[in-house]
Design brief:
This protein is mainly β and 543 residues long. It contains four helices and 42 strands. The N and C termini lie far apart (95 Å).
Length: 543
């Protein structure tokens, strides 16, 4: 045998030895890789058979015995199926394949991973049922399967996970009831089941979860009453039960025993009073109870709740005065108390809420004037005080709130003129001052509001002519309503520049002259009302 032949044989033997030297765990990982698409193979290029152990591969961690202890491949945009081959990696403590494009079902063989403590598969495209066999994973502390396409019922067998502290099944297509057996997972701290199709009542057994900090059951068709035991969980900080079919009263104990920080009951059929001590411990940041049938007053603990970030109380049957019910909230960004039966004056102290972005108080029985302090809110984007009994004039200082995006003061008892300073609000999209007692001329400075999409000044006592500069509002789309005033003069031909406008109402005024022929070019116009004026000439059909 020649030297060349001998060298060739040695090379073949070495290649064979290298390929066969890859550990069994490495081979299992290669099987997982083979279930992925070509682009994923490029991302996992370090996964190859050139070494015996996979410990230096992308996303792989080994223990001191060179056994694979963790797979961390989150947010790599991996695409393909979830291969069951990883079930043979018995030293695994953590699997994180979240935020990828993995498909297929969750392998029941995962039950073989007896040492696994964290299984994170959220934000993929996994389908099928949650394998009941997962309940045999006794060491599991964290199970996150949220934002997938999982179906079927939540297996009652999950109670076998005695160490489980975190369970996330949110945003799937799970159906059936919430297993009462989950109440036996006494180490559970986080339970997220929102955005599914779960039905039936909330099991009273969940009140046994004394270590529970976060409970999210939002956007399911869950019905019945909320179990009393949930309200007295001393470690509870987050409670999201919104967008269900829940009814009955809520416990007056909420907030008394725990440092509750975020509560949402919105869009249910809940009744009775709100818990008076809900912010007793001074940690409440978010309270959302809108779209229910709550009655009584605003809880007394809200006034001094300096921790508040967002407060939604709208669309209930709340009553009582707001004058002393609301306080100074240095971090508050959103306040909505609209469509209740509240009365009193707008508290000037709200002017100290320097981070306030949205202030909505419409649809109540509020009186008094617009506090000058409100005009100091430099971040305010939405101001809606419509459908109340607010009187007095619009403060000229409102022009200093350059961030205003929407103003609605309609259906009040406001008097005086529109301040010319309103023309400084160049970010404004909506200006609605309908059905008040405003008078004087419409200021031509309104023509500076180039971003305006809706202008409603109807039902007032405005006189003079329509400013030609209104024709500069080329972004008007929804509505230009100047009806039911005492406007006179001719219709400015410049209004034909409003090519995106859908509704134009100039009715019930004292306008004279001919209808501009250029109106026929308003191709987006759906409704044109010029009735009850003194106009003449033909009316073209809008193209």
């Amino acid at each position: 045998m020649g030297a060349k032949e001998l060298m060739f044989i040695i090379l073949i033997v070495n290649v064979f030895w290298l390929s066969s030297s890859l550990s069994e765990e490495g081979k299992a990982l290669m099987l997982f890789k083979n279930g992925l698409d070509k682009e994923s193979h490029k991302l996992l290029s370090s996964w190859n058979e050139s070494s015996q152990f996979p410990c230096k591969w992308t996303g792989i961690t080994c223990d001191k015995f060179q056994k694979v202890s963790a797979i961390d491949l989150a947010s790599l945009n991996l695409e393909g199926s979830l291969n069951s081959s990883v079930s043979s990696l018995h030293s695994l403590k953590r699997i994180d394949l979240s935020h990828n494009r993995l498909t297929g079902s969750i392998p029941p063989s995962f039950l073989n991973l007896k040492n696994l403590e964290e299984l994170v598969l959220e934000n993929n495209y996994l389908s099928g049922r949650i394998p009941p066999e997962l309940g045999q994973m006794r060491s599991l502390r964290l199970l996150s399967l949220g934002v997938n396409n999982l179906q079927g019922e939540i297996p009652a067998e999950l109670i076998g996970m005695k160490e489980l502290a975190f369970l996330n099944l949110t945003v799937n297509y799970l159906s059936g009831g919430i297993p009462a057996q989950l109440g036996n997972l006494t180490k559970l701290q986080v339970l997220r089941l929102g955005l599914n199709n779960l039905t039936g009542p909330i099991p009273m057994e969940l009140g046994r979860l004394h270590k529970l900090q976060i409970l999210e059951l939002f956007e399911n068709p869950l019905g019945g009453r909320i179990p009393e035991g949930i309200f007295v969980l001393r470690n509870l900080t987050v409670l999201y039960l919104d967008n269900n079919l829940l009814s009955g009263n809520i416990s007056q104990s909420l907030g008394k025993y725990s440092d509750i920080s975020r509560v949402s009951f919105s869009s249910n059929s809940l009744t009775g009073n709100l818990p008076p001590q809900i912010c007793q411990r001074g940690r409440l940041q978010l309270l959302s109870v809108n779209r229910n049938n709550f009655s009584g007053g605003i809880p007394m603990s809200i006034r001094n709740c300096n921790s508040l970030l967002r407060l939604w109380l709208d669309r209930n049957q709340l009553e009582g005065s707001i004058t002393n019910a609301l306080g100074e909230y240095p971090s508050l960004t959103y306040l909505d108390i609209s469509f209740n039966h509240l009365h009193g004056e707008i508290p000037p102290v709200l002017g100290q809420c320097h981070n306030l972005i949205v202030l909505v108080m419409s649809g109540n029985n509020l009186t008094g004037t617009i506090p000058l302090e409100i005009t100091g809110l430099k971040k305010l984007a939405v101001l809606n005080i419509s459908s109340n009994h607010i009187r007095g004039s619009i403060p000229p200082e409102i022009g200093n709130i350059s961030t205003l995006f929407r103003i609605n003061m309609s259906n009040n008892e406001l008097t005086g003129t529109i301040p010319v300073q309103i023309g400084k609000l160049t970010a404004l999209r909506t200006l609605a001052l309908s059905r008040n007692n405003l008078y004087g001329e419409i200021p031509s400075e309104i023509g500076h509001l180039q971003r305006l999409r809706e202008l409603r000044l109807d039902g007032n006592n405005f006189t003079g002519s329509i400013p030609a500069r209104v024709g500069n509002l080329v972004n008007l789309q929804r509505n230009l309503d100047l009806s039911y005033n005492s406007l006179s003069g001719t219709i400015p031909a410049q209004l034909s520049n409003l090519e995106s406008l859908k509704i134009l109402n100039l009715s019930h005024n004292n306008l004279t002259g001919r209808i501009p022929s250029s109106f026929q070019d308003l191709r987006s116009l759906d409704t044109l009302d010029l009735s009850y004026n003194h106009l003449e000439g033909p009316l073209w059909r809008c193209a």
